């Protein structure tokens, strides 16, 4: 009897030990998997995602001016029909990404290290509201030149860390409080970085989206923009030095469009995927504008995006993607891969090309611009399943305050900006080794 009890109790003890051991192992494994694989789960969920491309007609808000002239006539006649007079078809190279037609990206908030141990951000959720951007930008511009100059991205990064990236919680008074503390010297950005664990992440993530949009620039003096510092005459052109918003809406001034937040909605051409861009519906021939200064890194036909254009920022962090451009006359004729563009320059024309392996085909039902923004923290994210595309709906609403005024040349049927700018970032890039290499690209090899 005692022997039977011993066997029974011994067996029960062995079961208890094995159960505890398994539980401890599972805890370690699950914690490690969450820490290291949180982004991977999102990547799998989005592995069939694509950034561009369906017409996405929605009933969303009207961000343009509905009373503006029809874009085919604009202020200078018939600039934009599908049978445009000059082909202007870029066959330029395919350097750069094709904007996530096969991106398979997610948009989480994770960072990690590559095989060399280098840390970089793996995912970004950009949910900053246009109202928060406007308030932060105003603080930045208003305090420029002062000892307590406030950087708008620092302010947004603080709120991002406070809200956990959820700007549904945004209150203007929250930004007022941190702005006041910074200006009074009660705290510093360095202290915020040390005190708030996630501040550095949000500063880098939001900076990757916004850092190129506010700063110093020069513009022709006739412009009535922000904060003139001084004027100087250069030949017959008078230039005004300014500091402020130098990023532009992708749609030229006085051309109507409508849009809604369609990031992540389903697309089915080719295969089922998510839409990783922003569609802006308008009229054929509407001039499309460079949002930020940069260089043309991709140009030509893509099965999904039709005639498309990719512009990379000078710091290499942002890749702007403009797709479904006009049949026969998609681009500004002077553009080629390697061309330097200034923010606000006309770069192409709205259309409905794409969804065809054959070039120059209108297979998109609704005329629109697909506008996308890819972030690049590491070269492994430039192409493939690790690309990061962010929702730009709120950013587009913010940039609407700064639209480029354009004029049509009846002889060439091209549109161009009325007031030129000089972006010091462009000048610095042209003087750099990389800029010189870009300028020396042989068009025959594009």
UniProtKB/TrEMBL annotation:
Source organism superkingdom: Bacteria
Spans annotated as Disordered: 39-113
Domain M23ase beta-sheet core: 274-374
Entry-linked Gene3D superfamilies: Glucose Permease (Domain IIA)
InterPro entries, A to Z: Cell_wall_metabolism_enzyme, Dup_hybrid_motif, M23ase_b-sheet_dom
PANTHER family per UniProt: L-ALA--D-GLU ENDOPEPTIDASE, PEPTIDASE-RELATED
Xref: CDD domains: M23_peptidase
Chain intervals with Low complexity compositional bias: 45-56
Protein name: M23ase beta-sheet core domain-containing protein
A Pfam match: Peptidase_M23
Keywords: Signal
